[in-house]
């Protein structure tokens, strides 16, 4: 029997809602990006899973701080300040432009003046947020399913992260690619890619192995767990990984375990941990990471 903690999440059914929520998270994430000093690999811009949804954590502003949280249970966006003030925005089927306008007005009402980059990042539609009136879907049941998946994935990725002694990212949500990820580092710099943009140069300045959960996009219309090694060592695609349903995707150049296959596993948690560990071992072996120094 499939556990309710792993509900169905068919891409075609929630595609419109996914796109709208994706753009909303970008607006909130860019707020943090505008206020936080750059941390290696853009760790200063991410969101974090909470019991209710996603949060920015504390963001500095002048002599105070504020936090923004998506509550996907009661479907509210909450903005709280260190002075004790709060503003709540209801989440419902409305355009990105309308959400943006109310959100910016809410910040101003709390004494926070803010400008953000209004052009979508890592998305196939670059309509500025304040002009985007065609992404306007919000079906609560799919958002709630996504929230339950994030909670379980966050818990399991933290368990996977725990025994690694080397440099490792938090388990965090990237609003650009719309995925929850954890990234391990070998400690060595990676060869610079001459054609990479400034985001990629910073993100992949060092050797990494990353794994996480991604709800898919129009290139790959399936939610999936993924894993990649960057730079990818020769022979990685041929390495055996677990569980049995995991495979190498030639188009995207990384390992995948489709979410629907994960849901059918006898123990989804064991399957995720097995996937993360086996794909890490494959990359670390071929890239000659010093595992004796990096692992407990």
Describe it:
With 296 residues, the chain is α+β, with helices and mostly antiparallel strands. Helix content is 32%, strand content 22%. It has 7 helices and 12 strands. The chain has helices at 11-35, 96-109, 140-161, 198-203, 259-263, 268-286, 291-294; strands at 48-49, 53-55, 59-61, 64-71, 76-81, 86-90, 172-174, 179-189, 206-214, 224-230, 247-249, 254-258. The strands form 2 sheets. Strands 1, 2, 3, 4, 5 and 6 form a 6-stranded antiparallel beta sheet that branches. Strands 7-8-9-10-12-11 form a 6-stranded antiparallel beta sheet. A hairpin with a 4-residue loop joins strand 11 (247-249) and strand 12. The chain is globular. It starts with 10 loop residues before the first helix and ends with a helix.
String of helices and strands:
HEEEEEEHHEEHEEEEHHH
Structural class: alpha+beta
DSSP, total strands: 12
> Taking Cα atoms only, what radius of gyration do you get, to the nearest Å?
19 Å
Oligomer: single chain
Distance between the termini: 35 Å
Shape: globular
């Amino acid at each position: 029997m499939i556990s309710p903690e792993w509900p169905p999440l068919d891409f075609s059914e929630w595609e419109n809602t996914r796109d709208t929520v994706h753009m909303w998270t970008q607006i909130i994430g860019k707020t943090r990006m505008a206020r936080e000093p750059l941390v290696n690999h853009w760790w200063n811009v991410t969101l974090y899973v909470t019991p209710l949804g996603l949060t920015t954590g504390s963001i500095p502003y002048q002599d105070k701080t504020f936090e923004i949280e998506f509550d996907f249970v009661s479907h509210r966006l909450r903005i709280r300040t260190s002075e004790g003030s709060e503003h709540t925005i209801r989440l419902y089927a409305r355009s990105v432009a309308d959400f943006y306008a109310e959100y910016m007005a809410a910040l101003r009402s709390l004494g926070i003046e803010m400008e953000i980059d209004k052009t979508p990042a890592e998305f196939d539609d670059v309509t500025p947020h304040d002009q985007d009136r065609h992404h306007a879907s919000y079906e609560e049941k799919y958002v709630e399913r996504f929230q339950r998946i994030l909670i379980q994935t966050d818990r399991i990725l933290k368990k996977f992260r725990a025994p690694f002694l080397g440099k490792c990212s938090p388990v965090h949500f990237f609003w650009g690619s719309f995925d929850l990820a954890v990234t391990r580092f070998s400690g060595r710099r990676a060869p610079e890619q001459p054609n990479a943009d400034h985001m990629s140069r910073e993100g992949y300045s060092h050797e990494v192995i990353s794994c996480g959960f991604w709800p898919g996009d129009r290139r790959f219309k399936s939610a999936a767990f993924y894993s990649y090694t960057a730079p990818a060592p020769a022979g990685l695609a041929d390495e055996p990984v677990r569980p049995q349903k995991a495979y190498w995707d030639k188009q995207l150049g990384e390992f995948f375990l489709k979410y629907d296959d994960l849901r059918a596993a006898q123990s989804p948690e064991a399957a995720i941990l097995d996937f993360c560990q086996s794909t890490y071992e494959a990359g670390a072996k071929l890239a000659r990471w010093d595992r004796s120094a990096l692992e407990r």
